Amino acid sequence: MMPPKVGGAPKRLMVLLHGYGADGQDLISLGYQWRELWPDMLFVAPNAPDVCDMSATGYQWFPIGGEMPLRRIQGVEAARPVIVSFLIDLWAQTGISPGSTVLAGFSQGAMMALHVGTSLDQGLAGIVAFSGAFVPPAGFGSGKFARPPTALVHGDSDGVVAPDLSREAAELLAADGFDVRLHISPGVAHGIAPDGLEFATAFLVENMAPTA
Questions:
Q1: What's the pTM?
Q2: Which residues are within 8 A (CB) of 174 and not within 5 positions of it... i.e. 6 or more apart?
Q3: Cβ(166)–Cβ(135) under 8 Å?
């Protein structure tokens, strides 16, 4: 957790969801990039609930392996209630509204951010998904959920999560009326490159004005 730079009660919230085999500390550093623009923002990067199957020092939102598309669908659906409950508790504790909240993630965490963020009745300030994939929630496309602005960032040389998965996500979201932005980082593997971070920052500035 990274408290607001200006101290006092936070007025905005960003929840950062880490990738497979990592922990919350892996993404909290993004807060240092963004707290200069939003010094009243609280950054929270929870550990996933389960110890990683392949690394006892890391965590997972869901297991991988086997029939991956099916495992991904089952995994995000099973993990969704954990994140929704976490968000509801945070909103109650801080008094921050969903509309002042950004949900961001990397890799498996990006999959969770997209799935959860598109399944809420109240719209978030935005979703930022680095190197992820989209598993539409049940009822997606029915108009029953909010449509928060969404940024997708992916390296074109990613050998872990194929960049086409972000392209497919962009098409699905756009078809349902989302304001979705896609950035493919050239020559980048499974990670967040400077140009991708710059793109995400510009997206956030557009959708959530920096603190005056």
A1: 0.95
A2: 180
A3: no
